[in-house]
């Protein structure tokens, strides 16, 4: 093997993501409390992290903190500290105001600022250095998402001994859009430092490979890209889709708990026992099509095709990126639309839209899924959309109708949902009415097929297939194959 040129650590499996899977909180007495934040990625990687003695590198969620590495629930946590200025430029700026809108087909217009790019490079380097200092010789390092696209190359240059994977959780845009990015070549170069680059959809992987051909002219064969090295050889890089999923059994287990079922009944009762409860659950983000959904619902009430006596729309909009200007404007737009619609259609006893700008505990989310007859996922663009899969996993009763945007990655798998184009308001209105009126037999038939898909392709299967593509023999050497059941 090649002699590592940088300091090396002791971990054979290292995960790098912008956010750590723990939340930092300060107790009233000034001491630090760490709370595990129950994201999908943690659930997916937890067993593997424990059995392989893995380390997780990431930002702890507060600016200017100075925290030493520590262990949480059997996982080693390595905090990367960021200043308030870096957060503004690297996270709110380049990640969320440049890359996020660009990669979501410019639904909002991306800003291009040279200073925020510089911060992106600096912060990516800090993450890469933390990863290197943790990774043992020959370790597997799995880097996540659009905030850290330069890390694979930084790792490869300093530590050619590492096996490097990258997974992009959001879409990768078509070349015509990607080409707008002033740093388009640097980002591709950064990603091509990985051995395997994973995407949600087949189309994302194709878009990436086409961009590599256009901007670098490297030869590609199917999922393989031959990347030239300094020594006039080529390195084989795989760019392939690995659709992410959820801990389906975990969701079903929660849904079967008597107290959660009781809570679901209570929710319906508190809403005035409408015939139909329609639900939307999203981060308050302009990619999620919340405004389009509200427009369609409002028109259905205005047309008299639905009535507030029978139908309530519950919209959970969890607070998100509240420091970014476009998100502040979005919140105003959505809340104006909700307020208008409720003003026009609600009665004293029936509210048209029950709107909540809150985050809820996961148990409460599961109870809402159980309480909802129709689930609306109307994203204008979405890497995957886990909410769609969670709804399906929860519905062990075989009931419930999923209305799903074609522009969410989940639509590639969840074919038995009612698929919609959220830009087509008439089409969306028809789909909602169809969902509300669907006979029980059809609901069950569709839900059964959807559930089969989600349970057969759960998050454990996702991480296993990514890591086996990454490793071939390397994961076996590193001793992480046992944890995968290989
Ligand atoms: C990115 C990509 C891709 C939401 N509100 C609450 C809450 N949630 C949970 C949901 C779900 C998760 O957050 C959101 O995941 P999504 O996939 O729907 O969307 P993004 O946040 O945009 O995620 C996306 C994903 O990464 C994974 O690769 O699917 O396309 O954009 O799990 O249930 N959870 C709780 N309270 C809330 O109020 N507990």
From TrEMBL:
One biological process term in Gene Ontology: trehalose biosynthetic process
Single GO molecular function: phosphatase activity
Top-level taxon: Bacteria
Annotated family: Belongs to the glycosyltransferase 20 family. In the C-terminal section; belongs to the trehalose phosphatase family.
Protein name: Bifunctional alpha,alpha-trehalose-phosphate synthase (UDP-forming)/trehalose-phosphatase
Organism per entry: Cryobacterium psychrophilum
Lineage: Bacteria, Bacillati, Actinomycetota, Actinomycetes, Micrococcales
Portion of the parent chain present: 23 to 508 of 764
